[in-house]
Predict the structure.
Amino acid sequence: MSTFLSYALPGIPFGCTYAIVAMGLVLTYRTTGVFNFGFGAQAFVSAYLYTVLTENGVPVGLACVLSVLVLAPVLGGVLDRFLFRRIAPTNTTAKVVSAVAVSVALPELVNLVFGSATRFAPPTLFLDPGRVYLHVGATPVNGLELETVLVSAGVVVVLSALLGASRLGLTIRAAVESPRLLELEGIRADRVLLAAWMGSSVMAGLAGVLLAPQYPTLQSNDYAVLLVAALAAAALGNLADIPLALVGGIVLGVVEGLAAGYFSPTSVWHTGLLPAIPFLLLALLLVGRRKMRALEENEDPLAGCDPPPPPSITLTRSHELDRVIKVGGRILAVAAVLSVLTWVPGDWGFALTAGLVYSIIFLSITLITGLGGEVSLCQATFAGVGAFAAAQLAVHQGLPILLGAVVGAVVAAGVGAIGALPALRLRGLPLALLTLALALLADNAVFPYSWAGGPPVGLVVPRPVIGSLNLATTSTKGFFVLVLVVLVLCAAGVKLVQRSTVGLYLEALRASPVGAESLGINPSVAKVLVFALSAGLAGLGGALYASLQQTVTPADFNYELSLVFVVVVVTTGVRTIEGAIQAGIGFTVLQQLLSYLPGRWGSGGIAIVLFAFGALTYAAHPEGVVEYEKRVWTERAERLLRRDQPPHDGLVIATSTVGALEHPGADDG
Amino acid sequence: MADDRVVLAVRSLSVNFGGVVALDHVDLELRRGEIVGLVGPNGAGKSTLVNCVGGQLEPSSGSVLLEGIELGDAPPFQRARLGIGRTFQRVALFPELSVEAHLLAALRARHRAGQWSQLLARARPSTAEGAEIVDVLNQLGLADLAQAPVASLPLGPCRMLELGRALIGRPRVLLADEPSSGLDRWEASKLTGTLQLAASRGIGVLLVEHDLGLVATACDRVVVLDVGRVIAQGRFEEVMADPAVRRAYLGEAVA
């Protein structure tokens, strides 16, 4: 019993932080319908400010107030006002994408502002972490642990008092049902939502400040794990039940504590299973629980008043723009290719080659998100599977890398198909969560093994040798041409699928699963198909990436990269092939340009932040902000060119559409 | 059982939502070429019944037979391929697709099995498919709108398109769930015409409808549901004269 206690008790403080974030997640999700992936990042931001302030001699109390009671609610308020408020309640994809963009942008912003110097654990709030305050059984409880538990208990008391007894609690619970119905009662729902956002952000900030002293250094990654653990805890309560989320958080902490204690530190369980517990639990809950599957079915009684969503780019793009893009794109492409082969310096040639490789990976997002309509947060993991398979085969079996890349693509496609099986009955948010859990599972429990991701120092991956042509010795140019050919083939393949019967089925399923199934379309086959194809493409791109870098390490394809991928592609246009290519080239070119900046500004963080801001426009411009700008500019050009002539038929459609696009926020007011 | 004109048979179908009995041992038969009206006050279980037949909802007990074959727990897409077409109370179209694309998707999904083989097949109608699509478009009066994105259409054409989508490829049974709601009188009469044409081609039509005028003109037979039970069935005039039906619709006399 005393062993049990000594293992279980240290888990409770962690469980408490999970529980606080979980309750915050449930609070925002239930009131605003937004599932805030950014909470981990928000907790990190508050923890960071707290650490920096205390390092600089600000008293602990003041630092805590500034980071938890000032910064956190302001951040929550800003997110609500300027971002999530603008997303239509029914637009699940936009909500997921925006929250992902927030989670990607915040840690990068912190790095840009404060630099990436290592920050060590800040002091605790009010109890001495070195001192043992009491014993439970024979197990000592130190100040850090006691403090976390006490503060969490305080949060629970305050929250239940607010929600249960006050008028605010009643209006918040009403806002859960329908903010707009609440407004019909004469209550300003936007203030209620703002309160919910600020309140839950305070909770995230508090969890961050409580968690910070528990780790030796401040790492944004620990806060991503915090988010997933909180997710699993919230999932125990079906994302709806605040007390259950609390219990779920604490139980999860205890289970982790017990697992850490009982599994021998050298066993596979300890290294493999322990870090994966929250992700496994989350995945199991998502797949196994009927209520979790039904998450997306909550309907606003006033949804009928919403204007119809804007029609898709494929239908509304003007012929002129199509022609300009076709001709202009080709000229630009040929010019770029010729330039790389002739005068472009080596590092830019390398960057552009990397851009092409990214384009291949990004085409996988064009398939799964653009065509399949699902947000996958594990595309980098699929790329990793392809890269590691190709690298392992090349290193250990001596397989030529190109053949290895094909095998890698096939393996990744297989993994994608198998990964789709548990996801068959999920769509929207639960599916995105499941893919995130899979990505973290791979990061923590698969890729670190040397049979999978290779040794920590990395695997040396060869460049391809075609006949007597060794692409390693002919600088990057040979490899550039090879990747270009592969990209063109992949793009052609994606185009074929988009225009095929299956593409038609996927569009139908995306728009109305019930309607599509009533026609005889098998949604399961469609989902497995699109996952397998997409994972295969990502795997192929990953293998080429490894070969380009000539080395690959287990950390090269972490979950964070998956989030960045989604954010980047969504910015440039997720529905079109050219969108993926723009994303690939744009991502690397921007990073290359930024590398001329001094110090931390050149680290590429700005690129990620810029793309994240681009992705935040997804709600207003689901066709991609780049695509949107293209339309606006062609429209302007047309207006200039045709000022005197009456527009012909094709143009009338185009004009009215672009006109409508220029006032996307008109319906929010 | 002996009647081989029966295309759809519902046998002792029950559905419980938690403790609420939505359908209570309902029996129903639909013959080839027949239009049966399913009427009843709100909450009677009409849509529940249609959803059980279409496979969108799993019944608690009882069975659904299509041409004598028990459907069991076959998912909606299999039922569609076996010949059940349906429309929805809230239109379930694909806003970004054109009218023609809707019909093509329906035609292919019903008749060309296997998405793996369809992966690279061009989503353009073949000559034969094109002829069939044009035929349906003419029936629906949507010929001018073939290339229009559905997002741009008002409700009337949407309802007609949903009907056409369910009818293309010749299903054996059509389940029409309140197809006339939101339509004006002229559109409703066009709808009636389409249903009658479908029936004349041998399709069994189960029509859930609140507009009793439309039911009176279109239906060969009427089944009245109330609180999950069949309380009357037969010809429209007979059924409407039934005191049980009057009670269900108008309530008990207080005096």
Summary: Chain A has 29 helices and six strands. Chain A touches chain B at residues 308-309, 311-312, 314-315, 496-497, 499-505, 507-508, 510-512, 514-523, 525-526, 529 (CB under 8 Å). Chain A has three domains: 2-296, 353-558, 630-661.
